């Protein structure tokens, strides 16, 4: 009597087992089981202690593609760009009146002073009504005059408030620092990358300090609204506790379903425990290697847990079935290790490749995610492929659960009716249903591809798409957009000139032409530049006559206006101009229109005297990020699939088997992109990794099914027989883990963090479709790609032809011929 899928004998006594059989790795592990357990225990204790040193933070610099030409331009001129890039905007609203109120201005001043002293604030470029850099310019009988909007003589009386109102109206800040309805004003707070002590800015702590200030100043008469990258990250981190609750729910669901399947508490707890140990090892290694979690990689530990559950359930099921046949628990563990280690290792390597290929995307946060995920997959090789079988070799499984695992097989062997699900799936090994499966898959692929052509790069919603539309942050962003003409989405174009030449007429004329083009674009609310300031000042010098709204070709006048212009429009040595475009949103289409317009203008107008460079401002940086993501999105998939195909080819030694395993993954990738279009999810830093991860995770299912199918085919069975044995051995676990993990991550749709909800939908979709592909499309493809194998007693094995006679009379001799194939069981 032999075990399924192998030629190994059923050994009821450990004394009958040859301890020196199996591979060198197997002997090294199972003949020294106590040492393996001790080493794993010590590593778990050490890394568990290291987890306490793990930090959760984010970095603005890690979110941007530092090697992209736009970002290189920004970083080269960063010190001269008035804090453009990472900034926070705090709108202080007077709910019961206008900003020209003594109490309101007193509260604004106190808040301004406290924010000014916060660690990480770039104080030189902070701006509000109370900062000296906020100035007014006016035309009087004596010529141009100006000064701070709130002068030193301000004392809060009626005369001071009247003068303040006049200064604000002459400052050109209405719509920028002051709302159109003049009921609120903004504190513009640019941030540094590090604090005064040289430490990276702690966004969690900074967001907490902002919230503390909100609580301190917000009242029935004063409203506080805060936007900016630091606040988005802070809100995401604040939502981490709720994210952990959903992780816990997913863990409980997977544990409960696994126990329902096995009816064995000890083996269920072992599988869950080994998967959690993998997460502990992963998180413990991060601080040792100098990494920390951020809101975008915080989902990775659950992916590692999910992958571990999938592999662990396969190992547990194999051992359980062998014990049910009477095999000693230690021998059963070694048999399962032999059968599934290579398939599991290949699957984990494919997972690692799926994560590792993200390194080609030159955005640090994605590269960090790739490293963190690869570490998690690496530890799974030890915890779920090695530690779990060894633990089960000690503890085994309950006898009743072991016998129950063979129920379907025993019924079939006794001539009973197969389970209806197995009967249905077996239909796809026959011509009619195989044809239907392949045709339907082809139609889905075509339809999905046509839909995926509408997939957008970047954000498709205003505000912070990572958060719900009704979140406090997005409500604050809505307030900013509705009350200010100069939105928080700033696209800045840098104009490089020779030193002292930024005010030359020819340069300003070109800036003015680009300014007019941008103003005509959909999605651009307004602009600001030195050329535009010259036009406005000339009107002021001409008694307000709109006839003089012109850029005067008089260098003396241009130099005069430039001398009194805000320094944010040009730098100290007059070698860099900045043209600001204030956008209505940062949606992908809006950014694309602006980028295309500026690029076309730069091609036609760049010269030695003026070079138009992209891009600064948060919208400019996001445009560069979108470009990098777009370039990497398809390149990444080519690399992922190339590596997966290579690994499968090494494992199966058959290009036909590789196609059977990979084509279902391709279909899932196409349909996933179509789903993103349907749900209005764009490809961006937060979502790009999921597409690659789906390939790596999905190949696990195909590898476990195909490895058993090939092993049975090489023993002379038909495709139907081979597939049926694969269903009984690994297929039912594929179905179990696919549905269970889909349900687990499906609960994320209830998360208040929209980013997590979107990831839950996409992951659940990929879990289900990869499972369906492995159980339905794989055998259908095998019918056509392994054509001889569909006949009883086939003479072609996994794409390798033989000269065996396939008539029924040769069935017995065929068994002897198959013995010539070297150690097929150990290979699979």
Automatic annotation (TrEMBL):
Membrane topology, as annotated: Multi-pass membrane protein
Domain SSD, chain residue ranges per copy: 276-394
Major subcellular location class: membrane
Pfam families with a match to the protein in the record: MMPL
Chain ranges passing through the membrane: 34-52, 243-261, 268-289, 295-313, 340-363, 369-397, 433-451, 636-655, 662-683, 689-711, 723-749, 761-786
InterPro entries: MMPL_dom, Mycobact_MmpL, SSD
Keyword Transcription: no
Subcellular location: Cell membrane
Protein name: MMPL family transporter
């Amino acid at each position: 009597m032999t075990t399924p899928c192998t030629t190994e004998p059923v050994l009821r006594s450990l004394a009958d087992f040859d301890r020196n059989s199996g591979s060198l790795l197997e002997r090294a592990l199972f003949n020294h089981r106590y040492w393996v357990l001790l080493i794993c225990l010590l590593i778990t204790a050490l890394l568990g202690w290291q987890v306490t040193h793990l930090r959760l933070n984010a970095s603005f610099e890690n979110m941007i593609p530092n090697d992209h030409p736009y970002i290189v331009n920004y970083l080269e001129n960063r010190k001269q760009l008035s804090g453009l890039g990472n900034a926070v905007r705090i709108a202080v609203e007077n709910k019961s009146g206008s900003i020209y109120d003594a109490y309101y201005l007193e509260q604004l001043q106190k808040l301004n002073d406290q924010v000014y002293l916060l660690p990480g604030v770039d104080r030189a470029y902070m701006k509000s009504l109370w900062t000296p850099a906020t100035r007014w310019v006016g035309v009087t009988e004596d010529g141009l005059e100006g000064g701070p909007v709130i002068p030193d003589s301000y004392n809060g009386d009626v005369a001071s408030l009247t003068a303040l109102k006049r200064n604000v109206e002459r400052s050109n800040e209405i719509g920028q620092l002051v709302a159109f309805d003049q009921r609120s004003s903004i504190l513009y707070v640019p941030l540094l990358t590090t604090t005064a002590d040289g430490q990276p800015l702690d966004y969690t702590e900074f967001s907490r300090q902002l919230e503390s200030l909100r609580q301190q100043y917000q009242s029935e008469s004063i409203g506080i609204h805060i936007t900016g990258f630091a606040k988005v990250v802070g809100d995401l981190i604040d939502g981490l506790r709720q994210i952990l609750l959903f992780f816990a729910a997913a863990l409980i669901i997977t544990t409960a379903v696994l126990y329902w399947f096995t009816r064995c508490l000890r083996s269920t707890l072992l599988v869950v425990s080994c998967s959690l140990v993998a997460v502990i090892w992963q998180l413990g290694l991060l601080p040792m290697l100098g990494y920390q979690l951020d809101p975008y990689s915080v989902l990775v530990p659950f992916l590692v847990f999910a992958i571990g559950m999938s592999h662990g359930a396969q190992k547990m099921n194999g051992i359980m079935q062998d014990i049910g046949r009477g095999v000693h628990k230690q021998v059963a563990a070694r048999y399962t290790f032999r059968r599934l280690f290579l398939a599991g290792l290949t699957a984990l390597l494919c997972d690692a490749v799926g994560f590792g290929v993200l390194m080609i995307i030159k955005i640090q946060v994605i590269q960090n995610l790739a490293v963190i995920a690869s570490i998690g997959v690496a530890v799974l090789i030890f915890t779920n492929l090695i530690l779990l079988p060894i633990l089960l070799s000690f503890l085994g499984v309950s006898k009743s659960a072991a016998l129950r695992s063979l129920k379907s097989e025993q019924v079939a062997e006794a001539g009973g009716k197969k389970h209806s699900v197995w009967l249905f799936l077996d239909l796809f090994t026959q011509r009619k249903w195989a044809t239907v499966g392949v045709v339907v898959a082809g139609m889905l692929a075509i339809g999905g591809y046509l839909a995926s052509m509408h997939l957008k790069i970047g954000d498709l919603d205003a505000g912070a798409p990572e958060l719900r539309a009704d979140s406090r942050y997005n409500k604050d962003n809505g307030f900013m957009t509705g009350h200010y003409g100069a939105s928080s989405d700033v696209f800045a174009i840098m104009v490089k000139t020779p030193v002292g030449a930024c005010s030359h007429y020819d340069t300003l004329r070109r800036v003015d032409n680009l300014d007019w083009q941008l103003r005509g674009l959909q999605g651009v609310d307004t602009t600001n530049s030195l050329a535009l300031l010259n036009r406005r000042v000339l009107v002021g010098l001409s008694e307000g006559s709109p006839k003089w709204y012109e850029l005067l070709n008089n260098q003396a006048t241009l130099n005069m206006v430039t001398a009194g212009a805000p320094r944010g429009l040009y730098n100290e040595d007059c070698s860099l101009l900045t043209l600001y475009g204030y956008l209505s949103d940062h949606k992908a289409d809006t950014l694309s229109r602006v980028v295309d317009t500026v690029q076309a203008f730069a091609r036609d107008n760049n010269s030695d005297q003026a070079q138009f460079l992209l891009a600064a401002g948060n919208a400019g940086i996001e445009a560069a990020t979108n470009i990098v993501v777009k370039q990497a999105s398809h390149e990444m998939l080519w690399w992922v699939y190339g590596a997966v195909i290579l690994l499968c080819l090494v494992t199966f030694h058959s290009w036909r088997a590789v196609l059977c395993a990979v084509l279902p993954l391709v279909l899932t990738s196409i349909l996933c992109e179509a789903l993103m279009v349907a749900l209005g999810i764009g490809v961006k830093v937060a979502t790009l990794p999921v597409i690659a991860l789906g390939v790596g995770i999905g190949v696990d299912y195909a590898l476990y099914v195909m490895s058993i199918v090939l092993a049975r085919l090489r023993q002379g069975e038909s495709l139907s027989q081979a597939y049926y044995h694969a269903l009984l051995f690994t297929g039912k676990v594929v179905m179990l883990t696919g549905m269970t993990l889909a349900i687990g991550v499906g609960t994320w749709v209830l998360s208040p963090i929209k980013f997590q909800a979107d990831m839950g939908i996409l992951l659940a979709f990929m879990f289900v479709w990869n499972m369906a592909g492995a159980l339905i499309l794989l055998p259908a493809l095998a019918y056509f790609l392994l054509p001889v194998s569909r006949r009883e007693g086939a003479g072609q094995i996994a794409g390798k032809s033989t000269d065996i006679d396939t008539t029924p009379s040769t069935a017995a001799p065929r068994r002897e011929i198959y013995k010539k194939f070297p150690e097929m069981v150990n290979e699979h």
